[in-house]
Design a protein that fits this description.
Strand order of the largest sheet: 2-1-3-4
CATH architecture: 3-Layer(aba) Sandwich
Low-confidence stretches: none
Number of strands: 6
Distance between the termini: 21 Å
Bound molecules: 5-nitro-6-ribityl-amino-2,4(1H,3H)-pyrimidinedione
Largest sheet: 4 strands, parallel
Strand content: 15-25%
Mean pLDDT: 96
Order of helices and strands: EHEHEHEHEEH
Helix content: 40-55%
Oligomer: single chain
Structural class: alpha/beta
CATH topology: Rossmann fold
C-alpha cells in the first residue's frame, strides 16, 4: 500500500500572517473577514493572526518577503483586489504580483496562499468577496491551513 501525506483543516496552534492591501479597501475588508472567519472557525487563536497592511497589490510581495524572513508565521495569506477597469497596468500588475508571490513562497519554504481578486469590474469583485461567488479570502485561508498542516507533516 502506498503512503499518502496530506494536510488537514485544523488551524489550532499555528501562526498566520495576513498581508493585505488598502487599495479597494471596501472589498479587501470583506476578504479579511472571510479569512479570519475561516481561520478561527478552524481552531486558530485570534492572537496567532497578524495582519500587515500595505498601500496596494504591488507592495504585497515586499511585505510577504519580510514576513517570511522573520520565520514568525507558519503560513501567510495575501489579500487584495485588482480591477481591470481601474488600471491600465492591470495585466502587468496581476501577472507580476502572482509570479512574485509564488516565487516567494517557494524560495522561503513558507506556504503563501493567494487571495487576490483579479476582476473586470467592481461588481465582479464584490461577487467574489462574500456574495454570489463566495469569498476569496475564506478560500485562501482554507488553502493555507491545508498547506501549513501539510508542511508540518512533511518536515517531520
Ligand atoms: N492596487 C491595487 O491593489 N489594486 C488596483 O486595482 C490598483 N489599481 O487600479 O491601480 C492598484 N494600484 C496601486 C498599486 O498597487 C501600488 O500601490 C501603487 O502603484 C504604488 O506603488
Amino acid at each position: 500500500m502506498y503512503n499518502v501525506i496530506e494536510g488537514n483543516l485544523s488551524a489550532a496552534g499555528f501562526k498566520f500572517g495576513i498581508a493585505i492591501s488598502r487599495f479597494n479597501e471596501f472589498i479587501n475588508s470583506k476578504l479579511l473577514d472571510g479569512a479570519v472567519d475561516y481561520l478561527t472557525r478552524s481552531g486558530a487563536n485570534e492572537q496567532d493572526i497578524t495582519v500587515v497592511k500595505v498601500p496596494g497589490a504591488f507592495e504585497l510581495p515586499m511585505a510577504i518577503k519580510i514576513m517570511a524572513e522573520t520565520k514568525k508565521y507558519d503560513g501567510i495569506i495575501c489579500l487584495g483586489t485588482l480591477i481591470r477597469g481601474e488600471t491600465n497596468h492591470f495585466d502587468l500588475l496581476s501577472q507580476q504580483v502572482a509570479k512574485m508571490v509564488s516565487e516567494l513562497a517557494v524560495n522561503s519554504n513558507t506556504p503563501v496562499s493567494y487571495g487576490i481578486i483579479t476582476s473586470e469590474s467592481i461588481e465582479q469583485a464584490i461577487s467574489r468577496a462574500g456574495t454570489k461567488m463566495g469569498n476569496k479570502g475564506f478560500d485562501a485561508a482554507m488553502s493555507i491551513v491545508e498547506m501549513v498542516t501539510l508542511f508540518a507533516k512533511l518536515k517531520k
